[in-house]
Amino acid sequence: MKQAEIDTGMLRRRFRVALQRRGHWQRHWQECYEFALPQRQESDAGAGGPGGFGGGGGNVGKKQFDRVFDATAPDAVEQLAASLLGEITPPSGGWFQMVPGEDVAAADKAELAEKLARAGRIVQGHFERSNFAVEIHQAYLDLVTVGTACLRLEEEGPGAPSRFRFCAVPVRQLAFEERVDGTLDAVFRQLNLGSADICEKWPDAKIPDRMTSGPDAEMEKFAVIEAVLPDRSGAGGYDYVVFFASDPVDTTAQDGVIATGRFAVSPYIAFRWLKAPGEIYGRSPVMKALPDIKTANKVVELVLKNASIAVTGIWQADDDGILNPATVRLVPGSIIPKAVGSAGLTPLDAPGRFDVSDVVLADLRERIRRCLLADRLGQVDAPRMSATEVLERAAENSRLLAATYSRLQAELIFPLMRRALHVLARSGDLPDIPIDGTVVCLRHTAPMAQLGRKAEAGQTLDWLGRLASLGPDAMATIDMDKTVRWLAEQFGVPPDLLQPQITPEDLAGIAGIVGAMVQAPEGAAANTNTNINTNTNVYAGEAG
User: Fold this and answer.
1) Which one of 225, 336, 510, 541 has the lowest number of neighbouring Cβ atoms within 10 Å?
2) 167, 55 in Cβ contact below 8 A?
């Protein structure tokens, strides 16, 4: 987007429309944060934007659990976010793999696979040395709670341990526009920054003089909008425009524009749990369980009130002019005077029943854990599980999370890797590697991606067990070498653990050498034997 083509009035109108569209979700998000993730509610809201759209920090440091009486939902949310971290992007690595595509010639696949494996190790090293694990976990918490999360990947300076710097952007700072194809890559973000922060973030920023002069200029914060929008001219890439949220009073800045530029790949990666037709923002499992969460919270609140009544009691006394209830203190050893013939203090029975509330709470908590998948993705209660039980559990998880996992692959994994490879190509750490699916394919190899493979391998093992009961003739129909290698691939076993596969050409060469030994004299046979030993050593070296 050229400087002359910038229409900040149009950008502000688009921002206000996106903000109004987002406003329909504001109250729903607030309830989800209040009961399921209290430590994140309004922690970054404050003055600086309409409807709390900004980062003033009005409630930073305040107590957030005052209205939460049942911790089932917050605990289940943290468990589900931790499970997503371990199952989709584990901090230990190994959750992605780049392999040659179908358009690569067979003769070049081995060399290209080796180079891609080395490039993958370089990318993984940058992920491990960055703050990726910390920030993606925060993004998963937003994803589970409100159904929409956003991760920003910026390029770090040359002296940093990693080229990546991640930031989990709170959804309350963002407003999105959705493309016709459903891509969520048009982003408006409001920031409250001082003049020094603006100059540091955008070195070429144009700031009016009135903002940099004065005794309190360094302390003053300004509402700034960063718009990252896809280029509609067909050239590809993204344009970004930074401008003031309100119309500028001083005309020294070009209609409030602070900075402009282009991104070849958007730094914002927005992803959703699931999306209803016609909606832009996602819906979360907390939204589905919110009625049960609020009911359980209210039941626990009433139980606590009833428990306080049961502990302290409710008392009644005759108004006989002798007993003054205001002076009565219910402490051990106290003597309370009463008139002759009067009843004095008598306890009043509480009508509440704790046993009924316990039954209701148990049912509510079970449904909350089921909606938040705490009983599926959480830790296994049984200390030991058989191989069949593990495979059945994997198949059930794959069925429950199939739609969500496919959406996370499309909206999180592939855009994240595309942006990461672009950052490393810009810094010169790697060449430009296009993940187009024909020359280079990206495979997600995290534990969640292997659930379907393990379930399929379990079916094959079950079939082999049934086939073994038919006798040796039935087992003789199986190519055992191919079966073992296929099972190893499905379970993610490293190929180095398998014996090298001998091709028919190798077998023909060995047969020719053996034939030469039979027909050759004794001296030639000794030389041939040496060749066989050399051949054997070559295979042994490949196996090692």
Assistant:
1) 541
2) no
